[in-house]
Write a structure and sequence with these properties.
Structural class: mainly alpha
Largest sheet: 2 strands, antiparallel
Strand order of the largest sheet: 1-2
Shape: globular
Distance between the termini: 20 Å
Order of helices and strands: HHHHHHHHHHHHHHHEE
Number of strands: 2
């Protein structure tokens, strides 16, 4: 319980801690969020690419590892699983968009300021949850493949492609695998679509952020499903060739996610502005302290 604190300070704190108000959005808002994300990317392209260069590099490393250990069936699940971790990996991009929104000229160093956020621990917690979801997805994808083709690995890429596209088991694998992947992606979308921007903007806890995110999806099911589809399609496009396109797709989606958050969550409006500063009487005996005698009326 706050004590001996000016009334306006208490009111401002309660306004900031108020439950987020969720808006109803339409498909046009998704287009506008992407447009604004593209504008952010054009404003700071080098910074965004530096932040997200891990995506194409990691993709190439994963591709080489998969080919080297003859576990081709996991190549697509690994690539698709990036979408589960993307909301956490884009934290620096949210910071850049936040600063541009305030009229600043962000730099690469500004993106790292997210590490100093009071809610960074909560962000790490939700990021760990998404990582666990990613690991479970990979294990599930492997189990589906083994249930379909057994433990015998494909000798090379042409053999693997032939198995998938020219056999009934292959088409069954495609249908079941994509269906299962859709469920994992839906879970990730529901718990994280606005969670990280909310934690960055209002320093919300992980649980509160996830609840708000699920409420936002429940209130806007069609636009949110459309957003998930847009993300999936752009990530597939960005994966070609050799994941290099993700250096553009990921930062644009990261910036766009921040603007989507702004459209979904009503901004905080402070109900009481700070009282104006007033000048108190000054006396010669108080010199030179009286030169700095500016106080609030309520004090």
């Amino acid at each position: 319980m706050p004590t001996s604190v000016p009334g306006n300070v208490t009111t401002l704190a309660s306004d900031a801690a108020a439950a987020p108000v969720i808006r109803t959005i339409g498909l046009a808002d998704l287009q506008d969020a992407l447009r604004l994300g593209w504008e952010d990317f054009k404003a700071v392209p080098s910074h965004a690419i530096i932040l997200c260069v891990i995506y194409p590099v990691l993709g190439l490393v994963l591709a080489r590892t998969v080919l080297g250990y003859s576990i081709l069936p996991l190549l697509f699940p690994l690539a698709a699983g990036f979408a589960l971790l993307g909301p956490f990996c884009a934290l620096g991009l949210y910071e850049l968009s936040y600063r541009r929104e305030r009229g600043e000229q962000p730099s690469a160093a500004d993106a790292l300021e997210v590490l100093r956020s009071p809610s960074f621990g909560a962000m790490l917690g939700l990021g760990a949850l998404l990582l666990a979801l990613f690991i479970v997805w990979i294990a599930t994808a492997q189990a589906i493949y083994v249930a379909t083709f057994g433990y015998e690995a494909a000798a090379e890429i042409p053999d693997f492609v032939r198995r998938i596209l020219t056999t009934s088991q292959g088409w069954w694998l495609i249908v079941v695998g994509c269906g299962t992947g859709f469920l994992f992606a839906l879970v990730a979308l529901c718990i994280s679509v606005v969670s990280f921007p909310l934690m960055l903007d209002r320093h919300a806890g992980a649980a509160d952020a996830m609840v708000t995110s699920m409420q936002a999806v429940a209130k806007n099911p069609v636009p949110m499903l459309a957003w998930g589809l847009i993300v999936a399609v752009l990530l597939v496009i960005g994966s070609l060739p050799f994941f290099l396109g993700l250096a553009i797709v990921v930062p644009v989606l990261g910036h766009a996610t921040w603007h989507l958050y702004r459209k979904v969550i009503e901004p905080v409006v402070m109900s009481h502005a700070p009282p104006p500063l007033v000048k108190t009487p000054r006396y010669a005996a108080d010199f030179p302290v009286s030169l700095f005698q500016w106080r609030r009326r309520d004090r």
